[in-house]
Amino acid sequence: MKKRLSASYAALLAVVAALLVALSYSPVPAQASTVDLAVGQASRYGTASGLRNAIAVYDRASGTYWGAGDTERVYGSASVMKVFIATYLLLSGQMKGTVAAQAYDMIVRSNDADATALWPRALGTRLEPWIARHYGISDLGSPNTRAGTWGNTHITAHGMVLFYAAVKADPKVAPWLLNAMRHAQPVAADGTHQFFGIPSATSSYAVKQGWADGSADRARTTTVNTTGFVGSDRYIVVVLSEAAANGSVNAQGLNTAQAAVVTRMAQMVMPNGAIDNPLSHDPVGSFDASTVSHDQVSLAGWAEDPDAPSTSIRVDVYSDGKGIASLTTNVNRPDVNRAFGITGTHGFQTTVALPNGTHSVCIYAINVSSGTGNSMLNCRTVVVRTAPIGSLDQVQVVGNTNQVHIAGWAYDPDASDASSSVAVYVDGKGVDLSVPTTFPRPDVNAHYAITGLHGFDLTVTLPDGTHSVCVYALNVGAGSGNPGLGCQPVAIHMRVPIGSLDIAQVLGRTGLVSLRGWALDPDAPTSVSQVAAYDDNAGAPAYGLTTTLRTDVNRVYATSGTHGYDLSVPIPAGVHRVCVYAINIGAATGNPAIGCATVNVPAAAPVGAFDTVTALGTDGTVQISGWAFDPDLPASSVQIAAYDGSHGIGWLPATSVTRSDVNRIYGITGAHGFVDTLNLAPGSHSVCLYAINIGAARANTFLGCRPVSVAAPGAVTAVPAVPRETAPIAPVSASPNPSPTSTAPTPTPTVTPVPADRPVVTPTPVTGAATSTAATSTG
Questions:
Q1: What is the mean pLDDT of residues 211-228?
Q2: Angle at CA 764, nearest 5°, toward 763 and 766?
Q3: What sign does the CA torsion over 142, 145, 147, 148 have?
């Protein structure tokens, strides 16, 4: 953007103009001969001429960057930022019709009116940050700080060369934008001669210029920028400058004296109209071919030095980083001479001997004059085969075992169609010193154009732990040595189960202890596991399965399946040490304890239920049924006392009916059901039952009352009164709310070895899972 400053600065400008004109005629120094020197010299010349400046040059072919001056500081962009507007319009799909025509004129003739019209379409003040983010350029610049002044957009020289490099590689932007930049006109839309800088320094360019006396942040400062591509788009050149406004500022806002300095700076960067890249003085050439015959390797190619195009030059050969030969280009290569328009002998050919194995062979052309140094023509991988070759393809544990499968291939180039042998070592010790290659490997035969059997495949047994398996090919031909085909680590894990006893909770006075936690066998991580619970005062364990989903365990161990257990185990009254063991189902041995807890089981009153009371006919007979047992003696029968209201009416015989549902739910044995009759007088009755305690507790359990009506007369059989010391004084609830007496924390799962005094548990099938919420396992 071009804008004239206020006339109020006229007096000051006259003084500054005189100084700037004087500085603009600073003597021009002798021209530097390389890019880095030229860029630095040009920047210093600009500084001596009164310009704050930045110069950046980028070689797209080599990725080399040169910079001098304030390349990281921001400058006012002036009309250079118009390339941002065009880029956004192209990327957003707006470049068509009238918009495309305006954008083309904006670039080719630097038309400010077109830029003002298109700027809102291109995000306005948000444009520069958008471009920086889109191409990932952290130091492109910053938005304008003067409201409505697009030419005040800030740019850096370093950021602009990166922007142009990114645009050149962008197929959505480069064709249109570079075409417009190549067609830049000498005279801008406002009448300014805009071919200062790059267009005045070279004949091959694609440019976008910028000038203004209102673009910079500082008042009374003029901006002159020249940017673009040169040398068939190989190089990107950016020259940014600011200077004090003076009498050289014309009606279009161009400081003509400043523009003259910028032109001279561009000419210094491009002496003789081109970038004087030192790389253009280095030797060039090609490593064309390498041919192997046994241990002899033939090498061929060409090389020439641009500074001595008709002279033969030296070529050095390196193998694996070590020099092995030096020769001179003494082979005629008319194709090279024709392509470069030169004379002389520039081809080379030689043969070198290399040992068995794979080698990296590199060839260097030795520089004879100026430039950066010697040129590496190329490197080639050369394989010399005089000893056996092959590969250790697989070392893998077979399932959940300690068997290791080993497979691969080998053959001897001196007997390529015959089977050979390999030796297998584990941890440095031979385990099979002559394994024949008796398996077909059509892939190997096809790759090496051979026949025969060259694959080996075997299985070895290894102990627990981590091992190194190595295989060696045994030489059968003229070569020497048995080369290693490779080594691979393998880990044998005979892993015992892991788990945790998270909660051990006494369920009130029921005589039951709830055990909850988790277990899994790493050798079968998705399978249901079995656990065994031991009470220190009892020999037989209670078994259970991990049938509860534990998402926390699955997440930690990256597995699936159900690994939680929930057991209700009958334990006699008193203090007990309860331990849970995980039963191994994999290849390892041992059933580790996964947790123990101390529980205090209170003396438990009987538990039970009064199920039915039914009048049988009209003779006063009623039938009573239910069940009861004493948790302190869970296998024994108990007696039932019957009351009519508050009057004792008799004893029922001890429980003698098998109740498999009760036994299953509570994990007990014995006969705990009762079905019996009583004789009652005619009328309505409330029959109440009590289970008589036979264990350590001093309480009988009220089982409940049920109404019954006797319709016909019937004699009531006299029964002895219930002794007062055994009759209940007050009903005792059969289902008190359980309260924990021992709670195990939930630690990070660890493996605990089986104690020496605990016998190994043999897994026992678990059947008939309970449906009651009071128990989830069988006894």
A1: 91
A2: 125
A3: negative
Give the torsion sign (CA, 731, 735, 740, 742).
Answer: positive
90 alpha carbon, distance to own chain's centre: 35
Tally the C-alpha atoms within 13 A of residue 771's C-alpha that lie toward its C-beta: 2
Residues 642, 678: Cα–Cα separation, whole Å: 9
Angle at Cα 577 formed by Cα 517 and Cα 663, nearest 5°? 70
Instruction: With CA atoms as reference, report the closest residue to 389 among 449, 295, 474.
Output: 474
Output the six-digit token pair for 776.
């989830």
The CB-side HSE value for 315 (13 A sphere, CA atoms) comes to 31
Cβ 180 vs Cβ 95: under 8 Å: no
Of the candidates 314, 353, 342, the one whose C-alpha atom is nearest the C-alpha of residue 330 is 314
Cβ contacts of residue 590 below 8 Å, gap of 6+?
496, 584, 753, 754, 760
Measured CA to CA, the distance from residue 541 to residue 581 in angstroms comes to 10
For helices 127-135 and 82-91, give the axis angle rounded to 10 degrees: 60
Question: Helices 157-168 and 127-135: crossing angle, nearest 10°?
Answer: 60
> Is residue 712 very low, low, confident or very high in pLDDT (cuts 50, 70, 90)?
low
Query: Which residue from 162, 333, 137 is spatially nearest to 236, judged by alpha carbons?
Result: 162
Write the DSSP assignment of 221-269 as a string of letters.
EEEEEEEEEETTTTEEEEEEEEEE--TTB-TTS-BHHHHHHHHHHHHHH
Average pLDDT over the chain, rounded to an integer:
83
CATH superfamily of domain region 7-273: DD-peptidase/beta-lactamase superfamily (3.40.710.10)
pLDDT digits (tens, 9 = 90+) for 516-558: 999 998 878 899 989 999 887 666 788 889 999 999 999 998 9
Could you tell me what percentage of the chain is helix, strand and coil, using 3-state DSSP and rounding each to the nearest 5?
20, 35, 40
Domains of the chain, by residue range, sit at 7-273, 282-384, 389-492, 498-601, 607-710
Instruction: Order across the sheet with 154-155: list the strands.
Output: 75-76, 154-155, 141-142
- Domain 607-710 class, CATH top level: mainly beta
Contact criterion met (CB below 8 Å) for 148 and 179? no
Cβ atoms of residues 209 and 194 within 8 Å: yes
Q: Which of 237-241, 495-499, 723-727, 729-733 has the highest mean pLDDT?
A: 237-241
Residue 668 tokens read as 């007990």
CA distance 432 to 425: 7
Other CB atoms within 10 A of residue 562 CB: 19
Cα three-residue angle 721-681-732, rounded to 5 degrees: 45
What number is the average pLDDT over the span 588-610? Answer: 86
- Residue 691: phi and psi, rounded to 5, are -90, 125
Please report the DSSP string for 157-173 in residue order. Answer: HHHHHHHHHHHHT-TTT
Q: Are 546 and 519 in contact (CB under 8 A)?
A: yes
Which architecture characterizes domain 282-384 according to CATH? Sandwich (2.60)
DSSP one-letter string for 454-486: -EEEEEEE--SEEEEEEEEEEP-SSS-S--EEE
Taking the mean position of all CA atoms in its chain, how far away is CA 65?
34
Torsion sign (Cα): 735, 741, 746, 752: negative
Which residue shows structure tokens 């008193």? 574
Task: Tell which CATH architecture fits domain 389-492.
Answer: Sandwich (2.60)
Cα separation, 15 vs 345, in Å, equals 65
Averaged over 431-444, what is the pLDDT? 94
pLDDT score of 600 more than 50? yes
Residue written as tokens 């081809």?
A: 347
pLDDT given at position 279: 64
Contact of 638 with 701, CB cutoff 8 Å? no
Tokens found for residue 454: 């060259």
